[in-house]
Amino acid sequence: GIAYDPPSAAPSAASLHVRAARVLAANWTGTSTVPSRNLYPHQWSWDSAFIAIGLRHLSPLRAQRELETLLAAQWGDGRVPHIVFSPSVPLDAYFPSPDFWRSSSAGRAAGAPRTVQTSGIVQPPVHALAAWLVHRADPGLSWARGFLARVYPRLAAWHRYLLRRRDLGGGGLVSVVHPWEQGMDNSPCWDGPLARVTPAPAHSFRRADLAHGAPTDRPTDLDYGRYVRLAADYRDRGYADDGGEFARADGGGEFAVEDPSFNALLIASEHALARVATELGAPGAGRHARAERLTAALVERLWDDASGMFLCRDLRGGPIRERSVSGLVPLLLPGLPREVSGALLSTLRGPHFAARTGLVPSYDLRGPAFEPNRYWRGPAWFNTAWLVERGLRAHGEKATAEDLRTAFLRTAGDSGFAEYVDPGTGEACGAPGFGWTAALTLDLLH
Ligand code: 9WN
């Protein structure tokens, strides 16, 4: 026989860089980047923020455009929609499509744009953090294009919308009104609150995701029935945010949850916006102070000493006793009380989250609802790993951060920049060539 050397298991950093750049080039539409050509062929809000963070190393210009394109679809009330639809993509390529959301008619009172079609819900506010990092990558280009001066008022209006219109619980934190808003669509955290929602009949809509993803990797039909009901109800109320309605515990099926990751990202972005303001010669101190007040509210309302992590709070039902990676994301905040950051570090290293791949599972490895392949019910995702890695560095945990970074780069490359992976085996799941997996790989390589 012929003896041969197997190819090296660890591709060099240079080829990883080149492969990640290729994914981003393939997903670039000319004005923004799709998360996946097949599964998600439009622009997604928090995807674009993560993608811009990686793109800044390849092309600061494209990174700026990515954010500008998203912000151009902002609504008059300040909300940044979770999807900006591409008019050149067939309607049946993704569900729910523009004819479901009807933003330019149903969203008129809330100031939806007339010329571009969008969804009417939001996603986590990672954008100000992204804008600040993009600016820093090439300040010369940024000043020359007036990037910060153009995005600052939009980012400020976005945060104002969340803080004024979405404090449904009255305790200073922002609530999400749909699982898609929080970004971890079928997390076991939503099982309780979703159980109150009457699903839309199965024949009333057609899922497009199953044409590209294995049903065992995706949310269930029952989940989808409830997603559709919640979104249709919100649309039929003109996408109006009425805090009083959510505060009542009288049934009716609405979903309103205070989530640790969503709020931590808002806080990190508020600190970033303070830096943007200062850079532009405007006062930033007030924003830093607000971010500190939000951090105090986060600890006050969502910290759970017994589980050593943050929990979601259902405005109707109280604390949600499920361990999700969402409850670890606040590690991102340098201003956490010592006891809190210390407990988060132990939880991260403990039996609920220490996965074989060295990545962070989306849900408790020992939890009753754990499934290693089903979307946000166990698989490890790269955006949350990136956030936790950043959090570890913020708290001086260099060695643990380095281990997570190594695991991230190895698994991202081996999986072909998969959307997510089995946290035990690293097996690729979901869409290949996924935008934020490639982008955040580039960021960790720098
Ligand atoms: C619904 C685009 C998005 C991500 C979410 C992820 C998934 C959409 C879907 O894909 O959600 O918004 O159709 O499943 O859960 O985090 O932003 O990548």
Shape: globular
In DSSP terms, counting alpha (H) and pi (I) runs of 4 or more, how many helices? Answer: 18
How many E strands? 11
Class by SSE composition: mainly alpha
The arrangement of helices and strands along the chain is: HEHHEHHHHHEHHHHEHHEEEEHEHHEEH
Q: Report the average pLDDT across residues.
A: 95
| Poorly predicted runs of 5 or more residues | 247-253
Task: Please compute the radius of gyration using only Cα atoms.
Answer: 21 Å
Question: Which ligands occur here?
Answer: (2R)-2-(alpha-D-glucopyranosyloxy)-3-hydroxypropanoic acid
Terminal-residue CA separation: 43 Å
Biggest sheet features: 4 strands, antiparallel
Strand content: under 5%
Task: Write structural notes for this entry.
- The protein has 446 residues and is mainly alpha-helical.
- Helices cover 46% and strands 5% of the residues.
- The protein contains 18 helices and eleven strands.
- The strands form four sheets. It has a four-stranded antiparallel β-sheet with strand order 3-4-7-8.
- A hairpin with a 3-residue loop joins β7 (313-314) and β8 (318-319).
- The longest helix is centred in the middle third of the chain and has 20 residues, at 260-279.
- It starts with 12 loop residues before the first helix and ends with a helix.
- The structure holds (2R)-2-(alpha-D-glucopyranosyloxy)-3-hydroxypropanoic acid (9WN).
- The site of (2R)-2-(alpha-D-glucopyranosyloxy)-3-hydroxypropanoic acid has 10 residues, from α2.
